Amino acid sequence: MRLALVFPPSMPPTSPPCGIAYLKAFIPCKAFDVNLTYHDTAVHMVQKGDLCVEATIGKDVLEPENLREAVDFLKGPIYDPEEYNTSMTIFFSYFTEISNYVRRECMKYGEGSPRDDVLDIMDRVISPVKRYHPDAVGFSQMVLDQREFILGLAQNLKLEGIPLLLGGASLSYNPEAYLSVVSGLDLSDIFDAVFYGEGELPLKAYAEGEPFEKISYLVYRRETIIKNRETGIDDLDELPPPDFSDFPLKDYYASEIILPLLTSRGCYWRRCTFCRHHTSYYRYRTRSCEKVLSDLRELQKKYEASYFLFADEMVHPQRFDELSRLIIEEGLNVRFYAEVKPTRDFNRNLLKGMYQSGARALLWGVESGTQRILDLMDKGTKVGDIEQVLKDSHEAGIWNMIFMIERFPTQTKKEVEEDFAFLRRNEPYLSTVTGSSFKLEVGSRLYESPEQFGIKKVEEPSYVFSPVCEYLNPLFTDQEADFLSKRYSTEFIVLSKVSWYFARMRDHMLLMADHLSENPLERRAP
Ligand code: SF4
């Protein structure tokens, strides 16, 4: 079977997609990064006046040439902070407008057809997939925001009569909805099947012609919608490293090749009361550090890549201890960043070793500066430890990006001020600060027993594809909540040192952190 896997817009186009690279390594197929093609095509169409979008900064209307210059800058060395921030402002001003417009138009399929320029961009970005003449096309929906784009691309492919599949991390919530009638559109007329968990085994079974009823993690329609059981690969060491050979690695919006790599699947902690990540994976498993080392070695050699993102939900400190030692012993010259939880296990020695092995940025799930709230989250962290870890990490030479959660249930106004005091106290050690307001999601422990968190009224999600519920927070009026969100955002921007945009394009943070470190890697020749 000629199987094509597609990563759809709109995500930051700084590095190739992780999920379909792992699938390509496991199953004979062709992988397409349509997200990258979309960004390049949109820039070209804006310049030619073929895409009906206008962007502004304040009251100033931007010129298409501004977008072209910004993209040229972002694809090259990004190391002038002022120019970087200007380019990112232009890039996001345009792409927020473009993506909102395209997304809106794609949703018109249920009632007719999108406008011609959107049909045109969909046609242009999907044409490489069509030229491959696939027997089936699978879309990888990592985040829900990709859904409308998928719908547009799928309608285009459907005209050719190609069977279409859906998969990806964000399908773990209500996968049946993707084959239901939504806003007058019967999605089972468009998609043949939905893969709602890790894709390797089920997609292989599909490609080998197994009947649907025997394929795990599959949702499909017969008389009714049927959801098959879950299963997964127990031993991650059995998997090959990801295969990036189908992607134009030098065309991404970064001056260096940055590759994503998984050292584990799932989260070792799985206890945070607001989190539903435990539902998106089969279970927590790790790949041995020796295998991770050999992955790094192989990927560096094969793709001339030295920058990596460990795309795990959360890497355990003990694994970093072992992995750092192996990288140093091997003398592998790599740079990387990862998401981590700020516990005292990240002590000074470990962080120094991590820096020595190539860690240049860490993304810490801090969430709150108040111990009562951290305990309520069951985060397993202590405010004092967090502060020490951030200081030690900074002193080791690592850039700290931290995530905060605003208005966690029961958080009082006094505790909000404690958050701000925490941020200011630790300002010397922070590189980028970001966060979001608390969201109550189906599948979280908080959803299971909201009354334990002071939540009285929960409404089930209004959007069938999203696990987010409405709820009543008696401690803040809507006005106060809006005001507070703006205050948090302002504080995040003020506290972020070189650029707050690193929160949106994290790969760039790795490059900048390495560039400004004591021993940066030699840069790729232009
Ligand atoms: S929030 Fe992070 S650390 Fe907590 S359970 Fe979820 S993935 Fe794990």
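^ iron/sulfur cluster complex. The domain at 256-515 is CATH 3.80.30.20 (pyruvate-formate lyase- activating enzyme). The radius of gyration is 23 Å.
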